[in-house]
Design goal:
77% of the residues lie in helices and 0% in strands. By secondary structure, the chain is an all-alpha fold. The chain has 2 domains: 9-164, no CATH class; 247-477, MetI-like fold.
Length: 478
């Protein structure tokens, strides 16, 4: 009988190993820093770098290879263990690959203690083998990491004794780390674009591009009422294409973002001007952190506030004046979203306004301008590139928000410009489509990727326009 182990065992083991590596590398830093001084005094030579570079050299050579092993081991260990378990199952069973995978999941579930009901003997035997493989893998990982740490420690210490150029070695290591980080960022972006394009191409092979881009009805659930294995006729394909009209989603996204920006931009910009130009140092010291607290509140809390407070309040006021107000409205979502993104405009605008050279203000005052005239005609134009950047960031935040819209604006894809009606956004529909088990050959599921690609393109265009505007005004005030 295999005793079920907690699911966090491997995670705890990895955490302990990482803590050990970090603690040992810190110790190596102080050890290398002190040893180079001692070796230099004994052998009567001048170190080719400052002592702390030798400490960093020893520390990095101990930590980086070991951390790389932990990362690679964590990635490949599940696949290797699965391969050995399934290989052993193939020798004693005639099941196909899908059944073997299901049996493996049952074995893993029994080992982790999450298996429901009574397990057959085959599952218990498989769990015993799984436990054995896991134990061997963990012991091997510990031995390999200890060997690596000690081996690289000895190599690095030998180089320190030879008085190498430690500074060049440390800078080379950091340069490699920076290059790898840049490559990872580029590959991640390329992977996101590739995945979006691949699934979007499959979607547009079933749905006409122009029907999607200019259609006025969004009903992706119609894709589930048909058999995907049966080819559609031209008339059926045309009818299905009309169910994926994204105009209501584009309109809802833009409408709610417009309401949010109507709240965030004036309040955020005016508060930034006040804090930067009029507020006393004491008020600024407490006022700016209080405003920035809004950015730290989880979006689900804003969603609850919009659904339970703002939405009913708007409906109550509307009923008082005889207006027909939906219980979930674009106005409620937009207002709360606007409050949420005030710090993005306020904090960044405050920073760029403070970055305007004081000489510009003094020159304006010398010409007889008042404080308000100086702010309007000198400070704000000079800070305009940064202010545009802050507004762009706020727009991106508003377009990408999901939780507030789900809880306060609803899920209905209504094409409306009435802020008192319910509507939805692109991100909300992406979440709703991909929730649960989905068949990725279905046009309904692939529509989420088409929406994501469209949102990506729109954001790219906004960034391009903003960059052109920023460059134009930056040249003017350089």
């Amino acid at each position: 009988m295999v005793r079920p182990l907690p699911i966090v065992r491997n995670e705890k083991m990895n955490l302990l190993i990482i803590i050990f590596i970090i603690a040992f590398s810190v110790t190596c830093f102080f050890f290398g820093k002190s040893q180079i001084k001692k070796i230099a005094s004994i052998n009567q030579f001048k170190p080719k770098a400052l002592p702390h570079f030798y400490g960093f050299y020893l520390s990095l050579w101990c930590a980086l290879p070991a951390l790389l092993i932990v990362l690679l081991w964590t990635i490949f260990e599940p696949f290797i263990v699965k391969y050995f378990i399934i290989s052993s199952l193939e020798q004693t069973s005639s099941e196909n690959s899908e059944q073997l995978n299901l049996t493996y999941q049952k074995i893993k579930s029994f080992y982790l203690g999450t298996f429901g009901g009574s397990a057959p003997d085959a599952i218990k035997i498989g769990a015993a083998k799984y436990a054995s493989f896991i134990s061997i893998a963990q012991n091997a990982k510990i031995v390999l990491i200890l060997t690596t740490v000690i081996g690289f420690l000895l190599i690095a210490f030998k180089k320190i004794k030879n008085n190498i150029h430690a500074r060049e070695g440390v800078e080379l290591i950091f340069k490699i780390v920076l290059i790898v980080s840049s490559v990872i960022a580029i590959l991640t972006t390329a992977g996101i674009i590739f995945s979006l394009l691949l699934e979007s191409i499959k979607f547009f092979s079933q749905i006409n591009f122009f029907d999607f881009l200019f259609g006025l009805e969004w009903s992706p659930q119609k894709a589930f009422v048909r058999d995907a294995s049966v080819a559609l006729t031209a008339e059926q394909s045309k009818e299905l294409g009309k169910a994926f009209g994204a105009i209501p989603l584009f309109a809802g996204t833009g409408f709610i973002a417009l309401i949010a920006m109507s709240v965030a931009v004036p309040i955020g910009l005016f508060s930034a001007i006040y804090l930067a130009e009029y507020a006393s140092p004491t008020l600024r010291k407490f006022g700016k952190p209080v405003i920035e607290i809004l950015a730290g509140i989880p979006t689900v809390v804003y969603g609850f506030f919009a659904a339970l407070t703002v939405g009913p309040l708007i409906k109550g006021v509307g009923d008082t004046f005889g207006l027909e107000v939906s219980s979930e409205s674009a106005l409620a979502a937009g207002l709360v979203m606007g409050v949420m993104i005030i710090p993005f405009v306020s904090s960044l605008s405050d920073d760029v306004i403070n970055a305007v050279p004081q000489s510009l203000r003094e020159g304006s005052y010398a010409l007889g301008a008042t404080k308000s005239e100086t702010i309007r005609q000198v400070v704000l134009p000079a800070a305009l590139p940064g202010i545009i950047g802050s507004i762009l960031l706020a727009v991106s935040r508003a377009i990408g928000e999901t939780m507030i819209v789900v809880m306060a604006a609803g899920l209905a894809a209504n094409l409306t410009i009435n802020p008192l009606d319910s509507t939805t956004t692109i991100t909300t529909q992406i979440v709703m489509i991909l929730v649960g088990d989905q068949e990725f050959t279905s046009a309904k599921t692939q529509a989420a990727f088409a929406l994501g690609l469209t949102l990506f393109a729109v954001t790219l265009i906004l960034n391009f326009i903003a960059l052109r505007v920023v460059n134009k005004y930056r040249e003017k005030y350089d």
